[in-house]
Design goal:
The chain has helices at about 25-30, 35-40, 65-80, 90-95, 100-110, 120-125, 130. The protein has about 140 residues and is mostly helical.
C-alpha cells in the first residue's frame, strides 16, 4: 500500500488506518506525526467506521461555543504557567509556529502587520468601505 495522496491540507485519522485490519499504519504515523507518534500509537482506534469530525472536548455535545472558549481563556490567565507570559511572547517570530490552519496563520500575520482591509485602510485606497462592509 503506497502513501496516500491528499487533496487538501487536512489529515484525517482514516488516512492513518489500514482499511482491512482497522489498525494504525505505523509507517504513516511515524512520518506524518513525528512529534506525537508515541501518543498516537497508544490510542485504540474504533473498529466501527465513523466519519472523522472535529470536537470541542469542553462541551458534552462536542460543539465549540464562543462562551466556552472564553471561559478557557479566562482560566488560562488565572493558572500560573498555563496562559503564558503574553508580554514576552514574540508574535512576529512565533505566528507561523502556531498549530492551526494556514489560513489562520496568514490572517494572524496580516493582523499583526496591519494589512487587514479595515475601513481606514480601504478609504486610503480610494474604496468606499461604508457601502462594502459597514461593520469592519
Amino acid at each position: 500500500m503506497g502513501p496516500p495522496t491528499y487533496q487538501s491540507q487536512h489529515l484525517f485519522v482514516d488516512n492513518l488506518m489500514c482499511p482491512t485490519t482497522k489498525s494504525w499504519i505505523k509507517e504513516r504515523v511515524s512520518i506524518l506525526l513525528r512529534d506525537s507518534e508515541q501518543e498516537t500509537l497508544l490510542l485504540r482506534p474504533s473498529k466501527v467506521r465513523v466519519k472523522d469530525k472535529f470536537i470541542w472536548l469542553l462541551k458534552k455535545n462536542g460543539d465549540y461555543a464562543a462562551k466556552s472558549g472564553y471561559q478557557v481563556a479566562m482560566m488560562a490567565k488565572e493558572i500560573p504557567g498555563l496562559g503564558g507570559d503574553l508580554e514576552s511572547f514574540n508574535w512576529f517570530k512565533e505566528i507561523w509556529n502556531i498549530k492551526c490552519g494556514h489560513k489562520i496563520n496568514f490572517f494572524l500575520w496580516k493582523a499583526m502587520v496591519r494589512a487587514l482591509p479595515m475601513n481606514e485602510l480601504l478609504r486610503t485606497r480610494g474604496i468606499n468601505s461604508a457601502s462594502l462592509r459597514p461593520y469592519c
